[in-house]
Amino acid sequence: MIPGLSSRRRFADLSEREVLALAISSEEDDARIYRSYAERLRADYPASAAVFEAMAVEEDGHRRQLIEAHRARFGDTIPLIRREHVAGFLARRPVWLVESLPIARIREEAEAMERQATDFYARAAAGATDAATRRLLGDLAAVEAGHSQLAGTLTAEHVPAEKADAEARAARRQFVLTWVQPGLAGLMDGSVSTLAPIFATAFATRDPHTTLLVGLAASVGAGISMGFTEAASDDGELSGRGSPVKRGVASGVMTALGGLGHALPYLIPDFWTATTIAIAVVFAELWAIAWIQNRFMDTPFVRATFQVVLGGALVFAAGVLIGAG
Predict the structure, then answer these.
(1) 227 touches 252 (CB < 8 A)
(2) Is the pLDDT of residue 304 over 50?
(3) Residues near 100 by Cβ (< 8 Å), separated by ≥ 6?
(4) pLDDT (0 to 100) of residue 170
(5) 172 Cβ contact partners less than 8 Å away, ≥ 6 residues apart
(6) Which of 143, 162, 181 is the last residue of a domain?
(7) Mean pLDDT across the chain, nearest whole number?
(8) Are residues 147 and 178 located together in one domain of the fold?
(9) Are 35 and 52 in contact (CB under 8 A)?
Protein backbone atom coordinates (compact mmCIF):
# COMPACT_ATOMS: atom_id res chain seq x y z
CA MET A 1 0.00 0.00 0.00
CA ILE A 2 1.27 3.47 -0.87
CA PRO A 3 2.01 5.53 2.27
CA GLY A 4 -0.65 8.16 2.88
CA LEU A 5 -2.99 6.80 0.19
CA SER A 6 -5.73 5.92 2.70
CA SER A 7 -5.94 9.54 3.89
CA ARG A 8 -6.40 11.04 0.42
CA ARG A 9 -9.87 12.09 -0.72
CA ARG A 10 -11.48 11.08 -3.99
CA PHE A 11 -12.30 14.04 -6.21
CA ALA A 12 -15.87 12.80 -6.60
CA ASP A 13 -16.34 12.99 -2.81
CA LEU A 14 -15.39 16.68 -2.51
CA SER A 15 -18.10 19.23 -1.80
CA GLU A 16 -18.40 22.32 -4.02
CA ARG A 17 -16.87 24.38 -1.22
CA GLU A 18 -13.87 22.01 -1.10
CA VAL A 19 -13.53 22.10 -4.89
CA LEU A 20 -13.32 25.89 -4.80
CA ALA A 21 -10.80 25.73 -1.95
CA LEU A 22 -8.71 23.23 -3.91
CA ALA A 23 -8.82 25.48 -6.97
CA ILE A 24 -7.68 28.48 -4.91
CA SER A 25 -4.68 26.67 -3.43
CA SER A 26 -3.77 25.19 -6.82
CA GLU A 27 -3.78 28.60 -8.53
CA GLU A 28 -1.59 29.99 -5.76
CA ASP A 29 0.91 27.12 -6.12
CA ASP A 30 1.01 27.40 -9.92
CA ALA A 31 1.63 31.13 -9.80
CA ARG A 32 4.64 30.56 -7.56
CA ILE A 33 5.97 27.84 -9.86
CA TYR A 34 5.64 30.03 -12.96
CA ARG A 35 7.50 32.85 -11.23
CA SER A 36 10.27 30.37 -10.41
CA TYR A 37 10.39 29.36 -14.09
CA ALA A 38 10.59 33.04 -15.09
CA GLU A 39 13.46 33.63 -12.66
CA ARG A 40 15.29 30.56 -13.99
CA LEU A 41 14.95 31.68 -17.65
CA ARG A 42 15.28 35.46 -17.36
CA ALA A 43 19.03 35.66 -18.04
CA ASP A 44 19.14 33.45 -21.15
CA TYR A 45 15.56 33.51 -22.47
CA PRO A 46 13.97 36.83 -21.48
CA ALA A 47 11.03 36.45 -23.88
CA SER A 48 10.07 33.08 -22.43
CA ALA A 49 10.58 34.43 -18.91
CA ALA A 50 8.14 37.24 -19.69
CA VAL A 51 5.55 34.72 -20.86
CA PHE A 52 5.84 32.73 -17.63
CA GLU A 53 5.63 35.92 -15.58
CA ALA A 54 2.44 36.86 -17.43
CA MET A 55 1.03 33.39 -16.80
CA ALA A 56 1.78 33.81 -13.09
CA VAL A 57 -0.05 37.14 -13.04
CA GLU A 58 -3.03 35.51 -14.74
CA GLU A 59 -3.04 32.68 -12.20
CA ASP A 60 -3.15 35.35 -9.47
CA GLY A 61 -6.22 36.78 -11.19
CA HIS A 62 -7.86 33.36 -11.27
CA ARG A 63 -7.17 32.94 -7.56
CA ARG A 64 -8.85 36.26 -6.77
CA GLN A 65 -11.89 35.32 -8.86
CA LEU A 66 -12.17 32.00 -7.07
CA ILE A 67 -11.83 33.64 -3.66
CA GLU A 68 -14.66 36.04 -4.53
CA ALA A 69 -16.82 33.13 -5.67
CA HIS A 70 -16.10 31.31 -2.41
CA ARG A 71 -16.82 34.42 -0.32
CA ALA A 72 -20.13 34.97 -2.09
CA ARG A 73 -21.34 31.40 -1.52
CA PHE A 74 -19.61 30.15 1.60
CA GLY A 75 -18.08 33.10 3.46
CA ASP A 76 -14.52 34.16 4.22
CA THR A 77 -13.22 30.96 5.83
CA ILE A 78 -11.59 28.81 3.13
CA PRO A 79 -10.97 25.12 4.01
CA LEU A 80 -7.36 23.96 3.85
CA ILE A 81 -7.20 21.46 1.01
CA ARG A 82 -4.35 21.01 -1.46
CA ARG A 83 -3.45 18.76 -4.36
CA GLU A 84 -1.66 16.27 -2.14
CA HIS A 85 -4.90 15.74 -0.20
CA VAL A 86 -6.77 14.48 -3.29
CA ALA A 87 -6.17 11.18 -5.08
CA GLY A 88 -5.33 11.44 -8.78
CA PHE A 89 -3.30 14.65 -8.74
CA LEU A 90 0.29 14.50 -9.94
CA ALA A 91 2.61 16.15 -7.44
CA ARG A 92 4.35 19.25 -8.71
CA ARG A 93 8.11 18.98 -9.12
CA PRO A 94 9.88 20.82 -6.27
CA VAL A 95 11.14 24.23 -7.36
CA TRP A 96 14.73 23.41 -6.35
CA LEU A 97 14.70 20.58 -8.90
CA VAL A 98 13.44 22.86 -11.65
CA GLU A 99 16.53 25.05 -11.36
CA SER A 100 18.66 22.37 -13.03
CA LEU A 101 16.21 21.53 -15.84
CA PRO A 102 16.83 22.55 -19.47
CA ILE A 103 14.29 24.84 -21.09
CA ALA A 104 12.69 21.97 -23.03
CA ARG A 105 11.90 20.13 -19.79
CA ILE A 106 10.52 23.29 -18.22
CA ARG A 107 8.19 23.59 -21.21
CA GLU A 108 7.04 20.00 -20.70
CA GLU A 109 6.44 20.64 -17.00
CA ALA A 110 4.35 23.72 -17.81
CA GLU A 111 2.33 21.79 -20.40
CA ALA A 112 1.59 19.05 -17.88
CA MET A 113 0.51 21.61 -15.27
CA GLU A 114 -1.89 23.35 -17.62
CA ARG A 115 -3.28 20.11 -19.03
CA GLN A 116 -4.09 18.92 -15.54
CA ALA A 117 -5.61 22.28 -14.63
CA THR A 118 -7.83 22.12 -17.74
CA ASP A 119 -9.10 18.65 -16.80
CA PHE A 120 -9.66 19.73 -13.21
CA TYR A 121 -11.76 22.77 -14.10
CA ALA A 122 -13.75 20.84 -16.72
CA ARG A 123 -14.69 18.18 -14.17
CA ALA A 124 -15.35 20.76 -11.47
CA ALA A 125 -17.65 22.73 -13.78
CA ALA A 126 -19.56 19.59 -14.72
CA GLY A 127 -20.29 18.91 -11.05
CA ALA A 128 -21.17 22.49 -10.01
CA THR A 129 -24.82 23.20 -9.15
CA ASP A 130 -24.55 26.99 -8.83
CA ALA A 131 -24.84 28.73 -12.21
CA ALA A 132 -22.28 31.46 -11.49
CA THR A 133 -19.74 28.97 -10.13
CA ARG A 134 -20.31 26.65 -13.08
CA ARG A 135 -19.72 29.52 -15.52
CA LEU A 136 -16.54 30.64 -13.73
CA LEU A 137 -15.08 27.13 -13.67
CA GLY A 138 -15.93 26.59 -17.33
CA ASP A 139 -14.26 29.87 -18.28
CA LEU A 140 -11.14 28.92 -16.32
CA ALA A 141 -11.02 25.54 -18.10
CA ALA A 142 -10.96 27.36 -21.45
CA VAL A 143 -8.23 29.73 -20.28
CA GLU A 144 -6.05 26.90 -18.97
CA ALA A 145 -6.46 25.04 -22.27
CA GLY A 146 -5.05 28.11 -24.03
CA HIS A 147 -2.17 28.18 -21.58
CA SER A 148 -1.36 24.56 -22.39
CA GLN A 149 -0.99 25.37 -26.10
CA LEU A 150 1.14 28.42 -25.29
CA ALA A 151 3.45 26.45 -22.99
CA GLY A 152 3.95 23.88 -25.71
CA THR A 153 5.33 26.40 -28.18
CA LEU A 154 6.87 29.27 -26.23
CA THR A 155 10.44 27.90 -26.28
CA ALA A 156 10.56 26.35 -29.75
CA GLU A 157 12.62 29.22 -31.15
CA HIS A 158 15.30 28.62 -28.50
CA VAL A 159 15.38 24.83 -28.83
CA PRO A 160 15.63 23.92 -32.54
CA ALA A 161 16.24 20.24 -31.81
CA GLU A 162 12.97 20.09 -29.89
CA LYS A 163 10.72 21.16 -32.76
CA ALA A 164 9.00 17.79 -32.91
CA ASP A 165 5.24 18.07 -33.39
CA ALA A 166 2.93 18.18 -30.39
CA GLU A 167 1.59 14.68 -30.96
CA ALA A 168 5.07 13.15 -30.69
CA ARG A 169 5.78 15.00 -27.44
CA ALA A 170 2.40 14.07 -26.03
CA ALA A 171 2.92 10.43 -26.96
CA ARG A 172 6.33 10.32 -25.27
CA ARG A 173 4.97 11.96 -22.14
CA GLN A 174 2.09 9.50 -22.02
CA PHE A 175 4.48 6.59 -22.46
CA VAL A 176 6.57 7.77 -19.51
CA LEU A 177 3.55 8.34 -17.27
CA THR A 178 1.75 5.10 -18.16
CA TRP A 179 4.62 2.65 -18.52
CA VAL A 180 8.00 4.01 -17.41
CA GLN A 181 7.10 5.52 -14.03
CA PRO A 182 5.09 2.57 -12.68
CA GLY A 183 7.48 0.09 -14.28
CA LEU A 184 10.48 1.79 -12.70
CA ALA A 185 8.77 1.86 -9.29
CA GLY A 186 8.04 -1.84 -9.67
CA LEU A 187 11.56 -2.73 -10.76
CA MET A 188 13.02 -0.83 -7.81
CA ASP A 189 10.64 -2.47 -5.35
CA GLY A 190 11.11 -5.96 -6.78
CA SER A 191 14.87 -5.73 -7.05
CA VAL A 192 15.56 -4.20 -3.64
CA SER A 193 12.77 -5.49 -1.37
CA THR A 194 13.41 -9.15 -2.25
CA LEU A 195 17.15 -9.00 -1.64
CA ALA A 196 16.92 -9.53 2.11
CA PRO A 197 14.57 -12.55 2.17
CA ILE A 198 16.28 -14.30 -0.76
CA PHE A 199 19.84 -13.94 0.46
CA ALA A 200 18.90 -14.47 4.11
CA THR A 201 17.35 -17.79 3.09
CA ALA A 202 20.33 -18.64 0.89
CA PHE A 203 22.93 -18.16 3.62
CA ALA A 204 20.74 -19.63 6.35
CA THR A 205 19.97 -22.88 4.51
CA ARG A 206 22.72 -23.17 1.87
CA ASP A 207 19.96 -24.94 -0.09
CA PRO A 208 19.40 -23.62 -3.64
CA HIS A 209 15.97 -25.29 -3.92
CA THR A 210 14.61 -23.71 -0.74
CA THR A 211 16.07 -20.34 -1.74
CA LEU A 212 14.42 -20.65 -5.15
CA LEU A 213 11.01 -21.31 -3.59
CA VAL A 214 11.34 -18.34 -1.24
CA GLY A 215 12.49 -16.12 -4.12
CA LEU A 216 9.58 -17.20 -6.33
CA ALA A 217 7.06 -16.58 -3.54
CA ALA A 218 8.53 -13.17 -2.65
CA SER A 219 8.76 -12.02 -6.27
CA VAL A 220 5.34 -13.17 -7.44
CA GLY A 221 3.66 -11.97 -4.25
CA ALA A 222 5.30 -8.55 -4.50
CA GLY A 223 4.36 -8.30 -8.19
CA ILE A 224 0.69 -9.00 -7.48
CA SER A 225 0.65 -6.55 -4.56
CA MET A 226 2.37 -3.73 -6.47
CA GLY A 227 0.21 -4.27 -9.55
CA PHE A 228 -3.07 -4.00 -7.66
CA THR A 229 -1.81 -1.07 -5.57
CA GLU A 230 -0.79 0.92 -8.65
CA ALA A 231 -4.05 0.19 -10.46
CA ALA A 232 -6.14 1.19 -7.44
CA SER A 233 -4.14 4.29 -6.50
CA ASP A 234 -5.19 6.51 -9.41
CA ASP A 235 -7.84 6.16 -12.14
CA GLY A 236 -5.80 8.46 -14.38
CA GLU A 237 -8.65 10.90 -15.06
CA LEU A 238 -7.14 13.90 -13.32
CA SER A 239 -3.45 13.01 -13.43
CA GLY A 240 -3.45 12.03 -17.10
CA ARG A 241 -1.33 8.98 -16.27
CA GLY A 242 -3.39 6.71 -18.49
CA SER A 243 -5.16 3.41 -17.96
CA PRO A 244 -4.87 2.03 -14.41
CA VAL A 245 -4.81 -1.48 -15.92
CA LYS A 246 -1.75 -0.66 -18.05
CA ARG A 247 0.01 0.98 -15.12
CA GLY A 248 -0.86 -1.96 -12.88
CA VAL A 249 0.51 -4.42 -15.43
CA ALA A 250 3.73 -2.41 -15.86
CA SER A 251 4.27 -2.14 -12.11
CA GLY A 252 3.34 -5.74 -11.34
CA VAL A 253 5.36 -7.35 -14.11
CA MET A 254 8.48 -5.30 -13.44
CA THR A 255 8.23 -5.95 -9.70
CA ALA A 256 8.08 -9.69 -10.30
CA LEU A 257 10.95 -9.56 -12.81
CA GLY A 258 13.06 -7.52 -10.39
CA GLY A 259 12.85 -10.28 -7.81
CA LEU A 260 13.00 -13.23 -10.21
CA GLY A 261 16.25 -11.93 -11.66
CA HIS A 262 18.23 -12.95 -8.58
CA ALA A 263 15.95 -15.85 -7.59
CA LEU A 264 16.18 -17.92 -10.79
CA PRO A 265 19.98 -18.49 -10.54
CA TYR A 266 19.12 -20.85 -7.68
CA LEU A 267 17.84 -23.31 -10.26
CA ILE A 268 21.56 -24.21 -10.34
CA PRO A 269 22.18 -27.00 -7.80
CA ASP A 270 25.59 -25.73 -6.67
CA PHE A 271 25.07 -23.12 -3.93
CA TRP A 272 28.15 -20.96 -4.53
CA THR A 273 27.74 -20.93 -8.32
CA ALA A 274 24.10 -19.92 -7.98
CA THR A 275 24.91 -17.24 -5.37
CA THR A 276 27.73 -15.75 -7.44
CA ILE A 277 25.46 -15.45 -10.47
CA ALA A 278 22.63 -14.02 -8.33
CA ILE A 279 24.93 -11.32 -6.93
CA ALA A 280 26.06 -10.40 -10.46
CA VAL A 281 22.41 -10.14 -11.52
CA VAL A 282 21.68 -7.85 -8.56
CA PHE A 283 24.36 -5.37 -9.62
CA ALA A 284 23.07 -5.50 -13.21
CA GLU A 285 19.54 -4.73 -11.95
CA LEU A 286 20.71 -1.80 -9.83
CA TRP A 287 22.68 -0.31 -12.71
CA ALA A 288 19.62 -0.72 -14.97
CA ILE A 289 17.49 1.18 -12.47
CA ALA A 290 20.02 4.02 -12.31
CA TRP A 291 20.13 4.18 -16.12
CA ILE A 292 16.33 4.34 -16.43
CA GLN A 293 16.16 7.09 -13.81
CA ASN A 294 18.76 9.08 -15.72
CA ARG A 295 17.26 8.39 -19.17
CA PHE A 296 13.59 9.01 -18.51
CA MET A 297 13.33 10.84 -15.16
CA ASP A 298 16.19 13.33 -15.61
CA THR A 299 17.90 12.17 -12.41
CA PRO A 300 21.65 12.89 -12.55
CA PHE A 301 23.37 9.56 -13.18
CA VAL A 302 25.83 9.88 -10.30
CA ARG A 303 23.06 10.65 -7.81
CA ALA A 304 20.82 7.88 -9.15
CA THR A 305 23.67 5.39 -8.98
CA PHE A 306 24.60 6.41 -5.44
CA GLN A 307 21.02 6.16 -4.18
CA VAL A 308 20.17 2.86 -5.84
CA VAL A 309 23.47 1.03 -5.34
CA LEU A 310 23.84 2.20 -1.74
CA GLY A 311 20.27 1.23 -0.87
CA GLY A 312 20.59 -2.15 -2.58
CA ALA A 313 23.93 -2.85 -0.92
CA LEU A 314 22.50 -2.12 2.53
CA VAL A 315 19.50 -4.42 1.99
CA PHE A 316 21.77 -7.13 0.55
CA ALA A 317 24.12 -6.87 3.51
CA ALA A 318 21.19 -7.07 5.92
CA GLY A 319 19.98 -10.26 4.25
CA VAL A 320 23.41 -11.90 4.34
CA LEU A 321 24.03 -10.95 7.97
CA ILE A 322 20.62 -12.21 9.08
CA GLY A 323 21.02 -15.45 7.14
CA ALA A 324 24.52 -16.10 8.39
CA GLY A 325 23.71 -15.23 11.98
Answers:
(1) yes
(2) yes
(3) none
(4) 62
(5) none
(6) 162
(7) 82
(8) no
(9) yes
Is residue 57 pLDDT above 70, yes or no?
Answer: yes
CA atoms within 13 A on the CB side of 14: 27
Phi and psi at residue 314, in whole multiples of 5°? -65, -45
**How much is the average pLDDT of 67-96?**
82
Q: What length is written for the chain? A: 325
Query: Is 300 exposed, middle or buried, given 0-12, 13-18 or 19+ CB atoms closer than 10 A?
Result: exposed
pLDDT by residue (tens digit) across 5-34? 457 788 888 888 998 999 999 899 889 988
Looking at 142, 162, 182, the residue that finishes a domain is: 162
Which amino acid appears at position 112 of this protein?
Answer: A
Please provide residue 9's backbone torsions phi and psi, each rounded to the nearest 5 degrees.
-85, 150
Name the residue range of residue 128's domain. Answer: 5-162
Question: Does residue 194 sit in the same domain as residue 315?
Answer: yes
How many distinct structural domains can be found in the chain? 2
Residue percentage of the chain with pLDDT more than 90: 22
